[in-house]
Amino acid sequence: MNFKNIFSRKNRILLGELVRTDFKIRYQASFLGYVWSILNPLLLFAVLYLVFANFLGVGRDIEHFPVYLLLGVVLWSFFTETTNGGLKSIVSRASLIRKISLPKYIIVISGTVSSLINLLINLAVVVVFMVFNGVEFTWQALLIFPFIIQLYILALGISFLLSALNVKMRDIGYVWEILLRAGFYATPILYPLSMVVERSEIAAQMLVINPVAQVIQDIRYFVITEDSLTAWQIFDGDYRVFISYAVVLIILFAGAFYFKKTSGNFAENV
Length: 270
Hints:
Layout: H1 9-26, H2 36-55, H3 65-92, H4 94-99, H5 104-133, H6 144-168, H7 172-186, H8 193-199, H9 201-209, H10 211-223, H11 231-234, H12 243-262, H13 266-269
Helix pairs in contact: 1-5, 2-3, 3-5, 3-6, 3-7, 3-10, 5-6, 6-10, 6-12, 8-9
């Protein structure tokens, strides 16, 4: 994989065309079309808030908990959408790969860019919820962008790995689906991280080593409320704070390396 050529004019044009095509295919023959990209996380949020906040009382001690929960759902939905799309990206473009000689990594990146656009749309909805919920806007909200880049890089690295594995092992999708379900409950989305700290500080530390959990908690802290515990607070500012960042880089390079190593045989195997 030659990263030097990713932003060449030819590849930028190809990437743009693939992104537009991906949007058209994703919502083709859908009655609500692109509206589903907004409705999906909103409907999940509504169900979770009704059950866990209203009936079970989870998050009562968290300021602006509805927005707190919605933001977590939106970020997790982006991660799952990106990795699931990345997993299928090469196999779903089998005919294109067989007919045209093109950089295979562009196909994976195009799907992740489509998901990133959906995330930005959903974040606009979160902003509307913040206004109605009385969340104070400060300059710290701008820190959301580095954390989104971190989450995107993580999802991209996983997408490279899964897309290459899916060419050889088509049942990898079932394995990833199980891991995502487990990851959803192992990530402090439904419940505040403070609840975990009360029971076990070690368990809380293990949770925030997960880059997705670290990103969600940090964004909540800087954008919504300081009631959101961050990895820096959980680890008391020592070197373990950087573990989640190291995990992101390791996954990116490992995924890109495996993708490059196996991409030469994609046309014969898809």
